[in-house]
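Pipeline run #58 for the internal structure catalog. This entry was flagged by the ingest filter as a single-chain record with no existing model, so it goes straight to prediction. Upstream metadata was stripped on purpose; only the residue string is passed forward. Reviewer on rotation: M.T. Logging verbosity set to normal.
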Amino acid sequence: MDIPIGQLTDLVIILAIAALVPLLIDALSGRLRFPGVVLEIGLGIVVGPSLLGWVDDGQLVEFVANLGLAMLMFLAGYEIDFLRLRGKPLNLALAGWLASVAIGIGLAMLLDIWLDMPWMYVAFAISTTAIGTLLPILRDNGEVATRLGTFLLAAGAVGEFGPIVAVSLFLQGHRPFRTVVLLLIFAAIAVLGIVLATRPRPARFARVVGTTLATSAQFAVRVAMLLLLGLVWAAEELGLDILLGAFAGGLIYRQFVRGGPEHEHGTVESKLDGIGFGFLIPVFFVVSGVRFDADALLSDWQTLILLPLFLLLFLVCRGVPAMVLYRRLLDDRQRAAFAFYTATQLPLVVVISTLGVEAGRLSSGTAAAMVGAGMLSVLIYPLVASRIRGPLAEEYRIRAAETPAVPEL
């Protein structure tokens, strides 16, 4: 292997941090309650160029981190069960995101007038929801299987998928008509994949999936990785954001898994979680901390003030629609928790701010403030939401099998 020893050392340090985080969570559990992703990002900042300088963002680290981000989006897509989310949850999620975009455009235009800041980048960044980042937190809290969790999954799916499409249309090139055509081509590929995944499995295909779950062949896992990288490749070839391909891959693979026996579901999900949350995804979060440009953020007081400002804009942009649209479906505590959960942002803030810097539209300081606010939102907002939410009442729990129940609310 011709891998520079320095890059391999960086990856080993990152994996050591990933292994250390569960131990820290256990040690702090009696006093403080930190989501694992927060510790991963924070320790990434500590070992990165901003502080100790032990880890750099080399080619090997960048590749594994990008693969981790793709896996995060794949698993986010996999969590989206349209049978459960159809009807009110999905309709309200779409209305909420469009309202957030409208609010975001208004707020961003004010910032543009005040601070000469490109409004389009800011508007799309502050109207996202990091459902991929929230998933491990919601799972650990037992929130995924609740009524509130149903609305959160729908809002998160639209709040992540909508901005990806918007970024592809408006921020990645100057030929929107061509981008629309390419998006339609990709959508056709994704729909074809979903249709094929929902068809009954051929007997031999089904047998190989079942007989290799406990062998070295691992056919179901290999199909998942093929879908992930195949659709990421397709999106890249079409000039679209690779996150679109990863998310679509998760949607398709869920339909594929649903076509098999019930006992396969848990086994396959456990294996995917092992690959994602056991290896690739922690690397992405640690590297997000490594990449954080603290020097640019601390360069002057005006830039530093932007950090709490963006943090507030996240909450206003995503929280106001949540408080208004769900007033007849959720009580005050649930809506407040919902607002803080949906205001949690990070991966797409990183993507959009990076695009802005590369295009020469965003300063590195402004981008650092946006990303820093995203990191703080991951640290603060889910904790606030869970405190507001309180213990999960049993009457709000739903079984995953009862998918038609929620749309009728």
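catalog note: The chain has 18 helices and no strands.
catalog note: The radius of gyration is 21 Å.
status: ready for reviewer M.T.
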